[in-house]
Amino acid sequence: xxxxxxxxxxxxxxxxxxxxDFLFRPQxxxxxxxxxxxxxxLQSNGFICGRVTMEGSFTQGYxxxxxxxxxxxxxxxxxxxxxLDDMSGFYAVAFDPKGKLGWKSNRIxxxxxxxxxxxAQIIEVLTEQADERYLGYLEAMEIPYIFAGETEIDVGLAxxxxxxxxxCETLLLExxxxxxxxxxxxxxxxxxxxxxxxxxxxxNDKPLFTDSVLSDFELVKAENIGGNVVMNYKRKFxxxxxx
Length: 243
Known about the structure:
5 helices
């Protein structure tokens, strides 16, 4: 398989929502603990999130003053990826099409030191719309970046590079709804790891996948842990899909 093995790992409500105020209700506390425990135990090279999730969880809206950074020019007619000589082997992969995330370090700094996130080396996945000064900022911060598309991220190309340039064999897809949907439409999700909290979400909360398409999964495990249903599904691919 010429891309990483992808496990979509999420907490959901009974009605399949993944973002919203329901996540902060006391009834979701146990589901969240189970989610993080599974995250720590899953063997992977890191996790993938979209811009909105990364901003909410890690960057908190910070953005650098790009006027302080020299633009990175590429003279070959296409954008060149930026990879460090020494890569850590555990990554926080940000799908950030236009380069809107501001980082204060080139690694995730988790306040609780959670081993599932803390010290993960940040990698930015960009489109060619990213400001050249933003590229200068990333290089100054020693944050690796790869390009995967002109105006929208090509999920297949991004995953090809993450395996063949970075060396990722397995990655956790951890939302939100938009990036989950992009991966589902690209048919690259190998497993679903879902912790279903005993809560029904608000009508305006976001689903597991935005703009999903029809696909089939097989339930391979289900258990009740403290009133929360923990399920694992596997996708059935044709052999040619895995080449």
